[in-house]
């Protein structure tokens, strides 16, 4: 038997397309990078074996004049900057990266970010801040607010403020320049001692690369202290220099306390004013008579009832505030109605009316009943009955 060694060569064909590992890739360039700076990109892959069937070229399908591709060391590729980069002008770019073999192409979105550098100094919105202060401004008051901005981003754009190194040391004891730009008063002012303060302030970013030297990073502060009329008038009630008069009618049932404010102003410059709150208590006067409810009481007293039996509770109301009512049995003119005959005892099955017509009639009811002056309870004092008695009392 004979044998033959055969060598079979499998010829690669272009049956695989280029692919990127992700649909988008990100690359960063620091701003102010020199022209020609190269940043590597992740290349595409091709599963074909024959180099002729693998990736042959790359291109930016949405090219810009700012960037081009460096393909001098394939399969590695790099992105080249063609002009100065300024994040404050353009913060990012986008393009489409395309990889192609002899027949097929693949695309990847390219996001180009420009990294911020601390290349901007804080800029004050104005070169001078002026303010006029009254000399009695309270310690701790915010006098004014500085404002500067920084075109950088992040901490490089966060601005803090301070007194310039050239400032008089006495200023630091009088004024506080806070990091947030607020200038506060630390101690009292006196226009007779010093009527004007001039000093410079400086704005720095948090990284503190730019803190002085730039004219726009400093500003002048001019504070003028204005003399004032220091003393306010004092309102005293014992001087008899003014009179308080009523302008309307008061009703104690509706308002028991009334407050008013007295203002006193002097002729100083600027004028000073004082205020005094006056509280007036409205005193009630006895302007309303008591009113009974009901006006007529009908009662029955059984025979042999003990003395002290509660017969009725007389109730009256008075619209006056804090009125104190007292009850009494008084004579009533005979024309008001029938009265009890004081010369006879209460007989059986009798029916009587009390209203009082004269002293004798009033003595009759007082002989059998007693009225508590405070509570209004009407009670029996003695009963001489043979049977039930019906009573009517007219109030």
UniProtKB/TrEMBL annotation:
Key words of the record: Calcium, Glycoprotein, Membrane, Repeat, Signal, Transmembrane, Transmembrane helix
One GO MF term: calcium ion binding
GO CC term, one of those recorded: plasma membrane
Record's keyword annotation contains Transmembrane helix: yes
Record-linked InterPro entries: Cadherin-like_dom, Cadherin-like_sf, Cadherin_CS, Protocadherin/Cadherin-CA
CDD domains in alphabetical order: Cadherin_repeat
UniProt keyword annotation of Repeat present: yes
Membrane topology reported for the UniProt record: Single-pass membrane protein
Principal subcellular localisation of the protein: membrane
Domain Cadherin: start-end pairs: 21-124, 125-235, 235-292, 293-382
Cross-referenced PROSITE patterns: CADHERIN_1 (PS00232), CADHERIN_2 (PS50268)
Subcellular localization, as worded in the UniProt entry: Membrane
Stretches the record annotates as Disordered: 336-356
Record-level GO BP terms: homophilic cell adhesion via plasma membrane adhesion molecules
Biased composition range(s): Low complexity: 340-353
Protein name, as recorded: Cadherin domain-containing protein
Organism: Dibothriocephalus latus (Fish tapeworm)
């Amino acid at each position: 038997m004979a044998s033959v060694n055969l060598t079979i060569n499998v010829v690669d064909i272009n049956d695989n397309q280029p692919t990127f590992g992700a649909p988008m890739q990100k690359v960063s360039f620091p701003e102010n990078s020199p022209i020609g700076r190269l940043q590597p990109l992740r290349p595409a892959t091709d599963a074909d074996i024959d180099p002729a069937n693998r990736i042959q070229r790359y291109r930016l399908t949405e090219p810009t004049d700012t960037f081009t591709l460096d393909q001098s060391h394939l399969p590695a590729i790099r992105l080249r900057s063609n002009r100065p980069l300024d994040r404050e002008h353009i913060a990012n770019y986008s393009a489409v990266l395309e990889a192609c073999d002899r027949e097929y192409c693949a695309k990847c979105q390219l996001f180009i970010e420009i990294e911020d550098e601390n290349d901007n100094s804080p800029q004050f919105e104005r070169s001078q801040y002026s303010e006029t202060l009254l000399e009695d401004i309270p310690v701790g008051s915010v006098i004014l607010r500085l404002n500067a901005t920084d075109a950088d981003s992040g901490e490089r754009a966060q601005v803090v403020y301070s007194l310039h190194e050239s400032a008089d040391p006495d200023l630091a004891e009088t004024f506080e320049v806070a990091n947030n730009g607020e200038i506060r008063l630390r101690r009292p002012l006196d226009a007779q001692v010093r009527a004007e303060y001039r000093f410079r302030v400086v704005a720095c970013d948090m990284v503190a690369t730019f803190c002085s030297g730039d004219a726009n990073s400093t500003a002048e502060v001019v504070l003028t202290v204005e003399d004032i009329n220091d003393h306010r008038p004092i309102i005293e009630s014992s001087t008899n220099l003014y009179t308080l008069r009523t302008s309307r009618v008061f009703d104690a049932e509706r308002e028991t306390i009334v407050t008013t404010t007295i203002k006193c102003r002097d002729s100083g410059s600027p004028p000073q004013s004082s205020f005094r709150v006056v509280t007036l208590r409205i005193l009630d006067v006895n302007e309303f008579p008591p009113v009974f409810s009901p006006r007529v009481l009908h009662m029955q007293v059984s025979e042999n009832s003990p003395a002290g039996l509660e017969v009725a509770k007389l109730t009256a109301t008075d619209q006056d505030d804090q009125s104190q009512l007292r009850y009494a049995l008084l004579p009533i003119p005979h024309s008001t109605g029938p009265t009890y005959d004081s010369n006879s005892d209460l007989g059986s099955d009798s029916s009587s009316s009390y209203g009082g017509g004269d002293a004798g009639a009033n003595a009759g009811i007082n002989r059998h009943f007693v009225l508590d002056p405070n509570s209004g309870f009407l009670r029996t004092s003695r009963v001489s009955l043979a049977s039930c008695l019906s009573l009517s009392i007219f109030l």
